Amino acid sequence: MRTLEDYTIRLLDLKEGSHRFFIPLRDEFFAAYDNQIYQRGHIDCILDVQRSPAMYILEFHMQGTVQVRCDKCYAPIHLPVEERFRLMVKYSDHIALSSTQTTPNSDEVVVLPTDHVVFDLAPYLREFSILIMPPRNVYECRKNPPYPCDEVVLNLLNNQYDNNRKIDSYPKNNVFAQLLKKQSLHNKH
Ligand SMILES: [Zn+2]
C-alpha cells in the first residue's frame, strides 16, 4: 500500500527537457484525504514535466473512474472521468520556506525556495481529483453493458414524469384551452 509520502517529485534533480511519470491514484489515496465526494476510485495520472532554464511546466493527464451514486437512480456507478491540468513551478532564493505549498492553485505559478528539494504533488492531485468531477453523476450507461443504473427507480421516475405531463396538458387546467373550446362551441351556433 502506498502512503501519501509517495506522491512526491524531486524536480531539481531533473535534467532540462521533458520527463514522463506515471502516478496511479487508487482507493487509499482518496480515502486518506477524507474526500467528501467519493472514497473509492481508479484514476491513472500521466505527468509530463518540461524543465526549461526559467521554470518547470507540469502537465497532468488524469483518466479513470470514480465510485459514486448515480444522481438519477442512486445506484452505485463507476463514473468515467478525464481531465488535463497544468501547473507551473519556479524556484527563487527570495522566498521563505513557510510560505510554500499552503494553497494549491493551478492558475498561479508555484514559487519554491531553492532548498525545497522534495515537491509534494499530493495536495495538487487531491485538488485535481475533485475538479475532475462532472457537474452531475450520470452518464450514458446504456452504452456500457452491464447497465449499472437501477431500472426500477428509473421506470418509476419515467412514469412520474409522464403522469406530470398528462396533468399539465389536461385541458381542464388550461384556461386558454377552455376559452378556445367555448369559442368553437359558440361559433357552431
Ligand atoms: Zn442511474
Provide a short characterization of the protein structure.
The protein is α+β, with helices and mostly antiparallel strands and 189 residues long. The chain is 26% helix and 32% strand.
The assigned structural class equals alpha+beta
User: How many domains make up the 3D coordinates?
Assistant: 2
- Our count of helices gives 4
Instruction: Evaluate the radius of gyration.
Output: 27 Å
Task: Tell me the distance between the termini.
Answer: 86 Å
Average predicted local confidence, pLDDT? 80
Low-confidence parts:
98-103, 169-173
Basic shape: elongated
Percent helix range: 25-40%
DSSP E strands, number? 7
Main-sheet strand order equals: 2-3-4-5-6
Hetero groups bound?
zinc ion
Largest sheet: 5 strands, mixed
The sequence of SSEs as H and E is EEHEEEEEHHH
Task: Label this structure with key terms.
189 residues, alpha+beta, 2 domains, five-stranded mixed sheet, two-stranded antiparallel ribbon, 4 helices, 7 strands, elongated, binds zinc ion
Can you put this structure into words, describing what you see?
Strands 2-3-4-5-6 form a five-stranded mixed sheet. Strand 3 (40-51) and strand 4 form a beta hairpin. The relative contact order is 0.15. It has helices at residues 27-32, 122-131, 151-169, 175-188, and strands spanning 8-9, 17-25, 40-51, 56-69, 76-92, 109-113, 119-120. It folds into two domains: 4-139, no CATH class; 151-188, no CATH class. The protein has four helices and seven strands, in the order ββαβββββααα. By secondary structure, the protein is α+β, with helices and mostly antiparallel strands. Helix content is 26%, strand content 32%. The site of zinc ion has 5 residues, from loops.
